[in-house]
Every structure is written in structure tokens, then in C-alpha cells.
Amino acid sequence: MPLYKSQTLKIYNSLSGEKETFKPIHEGNVGMYVCGPTVYSNVHLGNVRTFMSFDVIFRYFLHLDYKVRYVRNITDVGHIVDDVDEGEDKIAKKARLEQLEPMEVVQRYTVDFHDILNAFNFLPPSIEPTATGHIIEQIEIIKTIIDKGIGYEANGSVYFDVVKFNETNHYGRLSGRNIEDMLANTRDLDGQSDKRNPQDFALWKKAEPQHIMRWPSPWSDGFPGWHLECTAMSTKYLGNHFDIHGGGMDLKFPHHECEIAQNEACTGQTPVNYWMHANMLTLNGKKMAKSTGNNILPREILTGDNSILSKAFSASVARFFMLQAHYRSILDFSDDAIVAAEKGYKRLMEAIESLKELDSKSNSTLDIASWKQSCYDAMNDDFNSPILIAQLFEGVRFINLLKEGKETLTTTDLKDFSTAMQAFVFDVLGLEDEKLSDSNNDKLEGTVNMLIEMRKQARDNKNFALSDQIRDQLIALGIQLKDGKEGTTFTI
Length: 492
Fold this sequence. Notes:
The protein is 45% helix and 14% strand. It is flat, with a radius of gyration of 26 Å. The chain is an alpha/beta fold. Strand 5 (151-154) and strand 6 form a beta hairpin. The relative contact order is 0.11. The protein has three domains: 3-278, HUPs (Rossmann fold); 282-435, Isoleucyl-tRNA Synthetase, Domain 1 (Orthogonal Bundle); 438-491, no CATH class. It is found in: Cytoplasm.
């Protein structure tokens, strides 16, 4: 019997504002779409946290024996700077600034995105479609919306008529807004726009002569609206009605609101049963922003090459830290917090390692079945990873009691306990055991420090060729030297 039949999972649905019992459209199958990155820059830590939340959700569905089709897109065109309908595409702007072809920008940052997610032990989605690979589907959706009388063309661009749509539907119900208030709080267009109403949004934008990303359409050479891309890709691979749509809290309005409107305009039905939104990540109690310097990239956590953290931290430690907060809660990242998380992570890994050394007895004095169900209860309560982690540390307490001989388990219970601990830690939470031999670390550090001293002597003797050779060969091995006032340090 599949595991999902014995577990009742509840999901917080952003659409209803309540936790609802999960009932898939097709028994034993889950269709889940998550808005992926716009690949015009390095993936930031807040993105990693959002995608990690849905990685754990994906993992738990798989653990429950569901067959899951997980679709996470790549936005490689159409996302306008500042998330509005007018202005420059984010990727085109980056290409212009760096004097590259737009697809060079896309390739560079898509590779970075995959590298970072691989480092953090993410499972790949079932399908990872790109916006540029689905231009034909987007054009067909626009045609349907125009035919339904809810889309209109103006000077080569096509817009979605929000007021017309709202006559028979409710635009704003996901974000708790109503159209009258939105219209009252926006300035009059004064003939400066082709839109009929301020809240109308672009389905297709005519490309200006200088715009380098463009495709032919019945209305103009141009490019699709940002919101349209996800509608096209989600429905193509999951159908007009699917189980789960997820993303960051910042996408609820206008992006997801517009997606709902587009789907309902095309099909006449609600597209998604459960809308899920992950909350934001702050740094030292403040919003992360490159402009203020209050910012750290995921790779900088792993290398230690930053001015915020006291040292480098492994990907699993960073992952463990993030999962200590519920995905719908704001999480504050700081040096003290991740240092504390590292201690907890090591304690958990040491306990799991010592499971191998435990001997079974003739009777059990611990209720493993109840403990295991408490782990499921945590995840069944809207994927509550912090409560699961608390239960796993209850498991650590069990392990210590067993080691001390104060409690006992039969062979069957010991195997069940060990299997459950490892399943929740490695399969569901996606942690990895990253213990490195301390003796090997000491040997590596000693060797690199010896080479640093040799390099210093070479520089003192003005033998810069040898100095550069030592530095370059260390870089080739993945060891970065950093010269400072107090000497030279290194990161791997």
C-alpha cells in the first residue's frame, strides 16, 4: 500500500487563507508548478531558500509514494525591469551593459543557477521549460483571450482587459484586493499609454527598434508578457487544471494574480487547487540588497569569501539552517545563527553515524512507532520542517539513551528507527553527511601554509615568477589565496 494512503497531509492554501487537506486531482499523482528564476544575474540566497522549500515539498511527496510531475521554469525573456509593462527587459539590459548576446547572459546565469542548486543537493525538476521555447504556445493563448473579448490590441501590443474580466470573475482574490480599490488608487493614464485601464497588463509587447529580443506575431515583432509565460508552460505540461502552483511571496501580486486571470479567461475554470508561497529571507535583521552592501551570495557562504560570516560553511549546514524555519515564516540569516546551526547539524550527523554501533535487545523500551508518526505529523502539517527537526533531535536523545544502555530496542524496532531517521534526514530534508577527516584537514592546511610561506619568500627575494606560479597552481587545484594586512589566507 502506498504510504500516502496512511497519512493525511494538510497544505496552507494562499487562495483560501486556510490549511486544507490535500486531495490530488488524480489519485497517486501530483502536478506541481513553481516559478523559476529570471536568469540575468547570479541566483541570490532568497531564491535558494524559496526553491529549497519546494525541493523539500517535492521530496516529501516522493517519500509518500506519489508520482510527481514537478515543473520549474526558466524565465529567459519578457521580464521587464521593475516588474512593470513599460521599460527594458532584464536580460536585454544585462546583455547591453555587458556587450553580450542575450542568450549568452541566459546561458551564463542558467549554469550558475544549476551549479548552486546542485551544491545544495536539490533534486532536479521533472521538466525545466524555458519561456523562449514556448513562444508559439503563448501566441495561441493570446489569440484565445482576444477571441473571448478580454484581450485587445493597441499599436502592436496586446493587453489583458482586467475590468472586462472582472465583470464575470474576481481579479484580486488571491492577494485579497478588489478592482475598485486598485483603480481608485492609481493615477489616470492621461493618454500616455495604450492601455484602456491602469490595471491592464501586457500579453504581448511590440519591440522598439533597439530591442534585441523579438519574435514575429500576428500583432508585431515583439516579445511576450512576463505573466503569460508561466500560464503557457504550466498548462502545457500539467493541463488546464492542476494541483499545486508555488513561488515566492513577492509573486502573489501581480504575477500569480495575472496567471489566474489568464487561465480563467482561456478555459473558464480555476487553474490551480493549492497556491503555495514561501516567505522572504533577511540578513542581519534587514532586507538583503546589493545597493546597501547587506547582501551575500550562496557561493560566498561556501567559500567564506565575504565580509559578513566568520568562516565558510558547507552547503548542508546552510540547508539545515534554512529548514529550521517554516517556509511561510521570515528567516533572518546571520553569522551567529548559522554557527549555531552548524553545531546542531554536526550533532545530528554524529548521532546517525553512531546508529551503526547500536546492538538490539530482546525487548523495546521506546515507542518507535509513535515517534515515527510524530515525524510524519510534522510534515503533514503544511511541511513543518522545524517541528520535524525537533522530532529528529528527540531521535538523537533516543540514540544517546540506547548507547548508555538506559533504553533498549528489538532488532525489528532498531531497524525501523534507523531507517526512519535516515529517510527523514537524507531523503526528505535533503541533508548530506559532509564530515571530513580532521586529520586530512590538518594535513591540507599544513601543506597550503607551507606553500604560502614559500610564496612569501619568493616575493621577498623578488622572484615574482615563482610567486605567481605557486598562486596559479593552487588556483588550478581550487585553492584561492587572499592577501591581506595580516598575511595570506586561503579558501577552497
